[in-house]
Design brief:
Blueprint: E1 2-4, E2 10-12, H1 31-48, H2 58-82, E3 86-91, E4 106-113, E5 118-121, E6 126-127, E7 132-135, H3 142-145, H4 150-153, E8 166-171, E9 177-179, E10 187-195, E11 202-204, E12 211-216, E13 223-228
Antiparallel strand pairs: 1-2, 3-4, 3-8, 4-5, 4-6, 7-10, 8-9, 10-11, 10-12, 12-13
Length: 231
Amino acid sequence: MKILKKGGGLINEKPAKNHKIISSGVLGFSLLEVLCVTAIISILVALAGPSLSGLTSPLGRKGAVTIVMNTLEQARVSAIETGEEVVVLFWKKNGTPATNPDEQDSMVILRKNDTTSTWVPITRWIKLPKGILFHGEDLSSLILNSQPDANILDSLPTPRPTQSQLGILQFTTSGAVHLPSSTTGLHMALTEGQRAPNGTMAVKKQKSGGQEIISLARYTGRATMDVVTTN
């Protein structure tokens, strides 16, 4: 090694015996490490596959059940706590128009203001997962086949459906079911598929097989869920 002196000229100096030269290079991965990481990623993707397979699956229906059950309980408790009647409206949307491909069945909660005799929305429209429908035609569901009065329609948040697209469930101040008034038909189904453009029929997909049936007790207003398989 050559070093420049103060007065000019160069002197030779040997490096110390214990002097080490450190490389600035970065070590790479071995082939075995790369293969192990690739195998782990493949396993994780395989395990996550069912949950990422889309919302039109049993997981999508289960998510819809949770949404509906929570909404019904929120409405029932609200009626008890406020001492005012509460309704849940179910919007059965027609088909999937090209202008709005994200059409989804929805529901909303409204509370009656006894002072003004008007209905006040408690929530916005709550959407079901894509491809999951309210379905009650083959179960004689009075909830989905009973329409609300015009004064309730006028209080709905936008967008507003037509009266024929709506079903209604009304809770009394004690939490009991007031409407529909019949002792039967207090149930609805959640199924996957699509509704005909006229809104009168749901076409169910059979590959995931089954419907979730939500039933309500007349006097307590509490909801329970059963599963019915389809062939």
